[in-house]
């Protein structure tokens, strides 16, 4: 039997980790998916760059117009 | 034109360009899960370093991307002394080279506030603290949004650091 808490997590509700500090909570409340940050922090910088490249390739493949010209 | 940050970084390192990764890719390297569409670096704008950049991208059809008419990258020593920034479009995507970073300072200050990012080629990137300062100084909505994530990461890593240090 799956309890309600687990069911909510299965359905996508982010559960704040017990050690979440004020900045972490503020970013979550702002609307960022902090599970993505948690996942990213488990990777090495090299792996993060590779993952970013994979997402970038996919996005540009779907919509080449995303390639803005404005400088950062 | 596909953006290939890895290939651009490899080119810069292979050609001995002195640089520090800043901007969105620096955030990615620190763990920010946001997509960015160019590679920003801060570098010394010496003739020697600019010539190395030119050499690194010379077969990638480099051109100045913010000028109205297409203008290929063709440096002269005289032009090098007048440049402050280089916004390039290449076959590997956009490469923006800046001589200073708002909120951090000129290249020596940027280098002083950089760390090795753990990639196999020893690329340097702005430290988390310096990137937060830079994003705050940039002040655009998306920069300030990124600051929220960077501060959360800073907080999380601070907790890990404290947990890994033995109590005295």
Structure description:
The complex is a heterodimer of chains A (72) and B (168). By secondary structure, chain A is mostly helical. Helix content of chain A is 58%, strand content 0%. Chain A has a domain at 23-67. The mean pLDDT of chain A is 84. The A-B interface holds A 19, 21-24, 26-28, 30, 32-34, 36-37, 39-41, 43-46, 48-50, 52-53, 55-57, 59-60, 66-69, 71-72 and B 1-6, 23-25, 28-33, 35-38, 40, 65-66, 87, 94, 96, 117-120, 125, 145, 148-149, 151-157, 159.
Strand content of chain B: 15-25%
> Could you tell me the mean pLDDT of chain B?
92
Total DSSP helices of chain A: 4
What's the count of strands of chain B? 10
> What name does the CATH topology of chain B carry?
Beta Polymerase, domain 2
Q: Give the helix proportion of chain B (percent range).
A: 40-55%
In short:
The complex is a heterodimer of chains A (72) and B (168). By secondary structure, chain A is an all-alpha fold. Chain A has helices at 4-10, 22-30, 34-41, 45-62.
Q: What are the SSEs and their pairings?
A:
The complex is a heterodimer of chains A (72) and B (168).
Chain A: H1 4-10, H2 22-30, H3 34-41, H4 45-62
Chain B: H1 5-14, E1 20-22, H2 23-30, E2 39-42, H3 47-57, E3 63-64, E4 71-72, H4 77-80, E5 85-90, E6 93-98, E7 100-101, E8 105-106, H5 107-112, E9 114-116, E10 124-126, H6 128-138, H7 141-164
Parallel strand pairs in B: 2-6
Antiparallel strand pairs in B: 1-2, 3-4, 3-5, 5-6, 7-8, 9-10
Helix pairs in contact in B: 1-3, 2-6, 6-7
């Amino acid at each position: 039997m799956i309890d309600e808490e687990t069911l909510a997590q299965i359905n996508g509700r982010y559960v704040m980790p017990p050690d979440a500090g004020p900045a972490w909570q503020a970013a979550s409340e702002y609307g960022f998916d902090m599970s993505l940050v948690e996942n990213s922090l488990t990777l090495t910088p090299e792996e993060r760059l590779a993952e970013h490249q994979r997402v970038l390739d996919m996005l540009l493949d779907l919509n080449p117009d995303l390639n803005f010209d404005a400088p950062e | 034109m596909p953006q290939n940050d890895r290939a651009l970084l490899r080119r810069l390192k292979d050609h001995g360009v002195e640089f520090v990764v800043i901007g969105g890719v620096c955030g990615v390297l620190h763990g920010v899960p946001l997509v960015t569409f160019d590679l920003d670096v801060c570098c010394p704008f010496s003739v020697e370093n600019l010539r190395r950049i030119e050499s690194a991208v010379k077969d990638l059809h480099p051109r100045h991307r913010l000028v109205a008419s297409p203008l290929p990258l063709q440096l002269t020593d005289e032009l090098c002394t007048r440049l402050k920034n280089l916004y390039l479009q290449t076959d590997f995507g956009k490469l923006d080279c800046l001589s200073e970073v708002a909120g951090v300072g000129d290249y020596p200050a940027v280098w002083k506030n950089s760390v090795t990012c753990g990639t196999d080629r020893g690329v340097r990137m702005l430290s988390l603290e310096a990137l937060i300062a830079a994003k705050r100084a940039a002040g655009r909505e998306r920069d300030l949004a990124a600051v929220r994530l960077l501060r959360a990461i800073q907080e999380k890593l601070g907790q890990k650091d404290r947990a890994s240090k033995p109590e005295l």
